[in-house]
Amino acid sequence: MVDHDLARHEAGHATVAAALGIPVLYIQISREPVGAVIDHPTDANEVKREDLDARFAGEALTPLEYSEAGLALIADEVTVYLGGLAGESVSQTPAAFSATRAADDLAKVFRLIAKYTEHLPEDDRDARVRDYFQERQGAAWNLIVTHCKTHFILADVMVNGHDLSKNEITDMIRNMGEMPVPK
């Protein structure tokens, strides 16, 4: 039997990814490494990131333009990371989650955000990081609440130690009817 909070956490990542149209390849919960593995558009995003970095290095973008373009580029990725915490918190009153899982996900989130905000003046940077984090956290929470039926079904299946394949996840999403099935 798997910890309910862990199942809700991984289901949160998967639910948010699916709601954003990002295919979930599988969720592994029965053995290490535990995690929801999503289909990142890595190649396309990497090319966009490299182009953005080159334009900034060539001074074709101001620090603010670079920051805003970069933050827009990573928005879905950050929201999916925060989906785990939202998924874990949705059934808790007050909101609660594993400090270890939170530390891992938040470290990834803030590394991504830092890359695109480190060139801003400190006062602007602090405000932008805070606002961006709250925006993405709100987006993750809203997606979990909107698709809570799918989220809880995924979590309930995993509580029994059942890993989920892409086909199983796709079938559950289709059967719930709460959102389109990611391609």
Keywords:
Methane Monooxygenase Hydroxylase, Chain G, domain 1, single chain, 7 helices, elongated, 183 residues, mainly alpha, 69% helix
Protein model, in words:
By secondary structure, the chain is mainly α. The protein contains seven helices and three strands, in the order αββαααααβα. It has a three-stranded antiparallel β-sheet with strand order 2-1-3. α1 crosses α3. The longest helix has 27 residues.
Brief synopsis:
This protein is 69% helix and 6% strand. It has 183 residues and is mainly alpha-helical. A three-stranded antiparallel beta sheet has the order 2-1-3.
Parts with pLDDT < 50 across at least 5 consecutive residues: none
Largest β-sheet summary: 3 strands, antiparallel
Backbone shape: elongated
By CATH reckoning, the class would read Mainly Alpha
Series of H and E elements: HEEHHHHHEH
Helix- and strand-based class? mainly alpha
Question: What CATH architecture label applies?
Answer: Up-down Bundle
Radius of gyration of CA atoms, rounded to a whole number: 17 Å
H/I helix tally: 7
User: Roughly how much helix do the residues carry, as a percent range?
Assistant: 55-70%
The CATH homology group name: Peptidase M41
In the sheet with the most strands, the strands line up as 2-1-3
Percent strand = 5-15%
Please name the CATH topology.
Answer: Methane Monooxygenase Hydroxylase, Chain G, domain 1
**Record field, number of beta strands:** 3
> How far is the first residue's CA from the last residue's CA?
31 Å
Mean pLDDT: 85
Structural topology:
Layout: H1 4-19, E1 24-28, E2 35-38, H2 42-57, H3 63-89, H4 99-117, H5 122-146, H6 148-159, E3 164-165, H7 166-176
Antiparallel strand pairs: 1-2, 1-3
